[in-house]
Amino acid sequence: MKIRVWCERDKCIGFDIVTPEAPVGKCPICGDELKVSPPAAPDDRVDVGKCWRCGCPNLYVEKSFPQALGCLVMVTSAAVAIYFAEKTYGLSFMGIIVLDFVLYFLVPTRAVCYQCSAEYLGAPKNPRHKGYDLLIAGKYADSEDVGGPAGH
Questions:
Q1: Which burial class, exposed, middle or buried, applies to 150 when counting CB atoms under 10 A from its CB (0-12, 13-18, 19+)?
Q2: Handedness of CA 134, 136, 137, 142 (dihedral sign)
Q3: Which residues does 101 contact at the CB level (< 8 Å), separation at least 6?
Q4: Hey, is 130 helix, strand or coil?
């Protein structure tokens, strides 16, 4: 399992990849130490019940697919489908749907912490972790970033 840990320094966007076996990294931008605290016996089969970075009990799962690659696939697929739509009587659109299903099942998932955004790549699936939930994310949102509660 690999864990992408983001720097917590204000306005720093650095991150490092750490593992349960080597739980300490270094921010390439500011040099701060980035670490996680895995369970006593770190192992790829260990269930991530709570975040090893900040202790947050709430994590969500998402596909670990690069957004830039997804956009490239969409644009290329649309161009090919439009170009060949008349020649294939629209069957080129079915090819795109098949490609989408194949990618959906081939791309692995990752668990992400709502509070510190640590990403657990290759972690075993935890049935308690569901997809992103805006209500849970709002609980961890910085009140300065979202305007805070009324009256503050």
A1: exposed
A2: positive
A3: none
A4: strand
pTM over 0.85: no
pLDDT exceeding 70 applies to what percent of the chain? Answer: 88
Residue 68: which H helix or E strand, with range?
helix 67-88
CA distances from 34 to 2, 26, 72 (A): 14, 5, 33
Query: Given this model, what pLDDT does residue 45 score?
Result: 62
What is the reported pLDDT for 44?
Answer: 57
Instruction: Region of 90 please: left (phi>0), alpha (psi -120 to 50) or beta.
Output: left
**Which pair of structure tokens corresponds to residue 124?**
């075993």
Q: Tell me the torsion sign for CA atoms 44, 46, 51, 55.
A: negative
CA-to-CA distance for 111 and 58, rounded, in angstroms? 10
